[in-house]
Amino acid sequence: MRESADRAPDDVRPPDVDAEAARFWDELYGQRDQIWSGRPNPHLVDVAGPLPAGTALDLGCGEGADAIWLAGRGWRVTAVDISATALDRAAARADADGVAALIDFQRHDLIRTFPDGAFDLVSAQFLQSPLDFPREDVLRAAARAVAPGGRLLVVEHGEMPPWSRHDHSHVRFPTPEETLAGLDLDADRWDIERVDGVQRPATGPDGQHAALLDNVVLVRRR
């Protein structure tokens, strides 16, 4: 982010992106030419499919499948991620698919900076991290970015996949009800449209098949 020209030379501020977090995600995306399936997340398709096109904010856009799917249906999308590698990959795919003009890719460390604007749909798909990450604070900022009449869709892992090679015995995933409570929404200004857990078929890296639990929270600002 460009610094103000009138800043004093000794005026030091924290960088907009945490170097350790950026390195972690860039290294993850650098492992292969494509990490994710390239298909939009199914819960986003279920929610946004019937909606008229408007403005959308895609938090943690990764390689851009959700943003590209939305743009292909006429949405104007702000798509953000901390990984420059992921953003470059997403922008290249958007250009190849002919929807680049409808997507504004922005690099944000959501702990430190958040996109400007109000949106008809704010989507937080699996916005979870093995690093220190104030998830509730970020999701509350996501709720504040919803325009009147717009929706916030939060989809989270409800459990670890059985093929995970790491010890996650110490990890506790929030329930959808806990995620909703953490948003701290004013009941007079929001309608709760969906709070539940859904089983989703998935395939592991070595071809394993399992049903994974996704937690889904969908709320609408009045």
TrEMBL record:
One of its GO terms (molecular function) is methyltransferase activity. Residues 57-150 form the Methyltransferase domain. It comes from the Bacteria. This is Methyltransferase domain-containing protein. It holds the Pfam family Methyltransf_25. It comes from Micromonospora thermarum. Gene3D superfamilies: Vaccinia Virus protein VP39 (3.40.50.150). Keywords: Methyltransferase, S-adenosyl-L-methionine, Transferase.
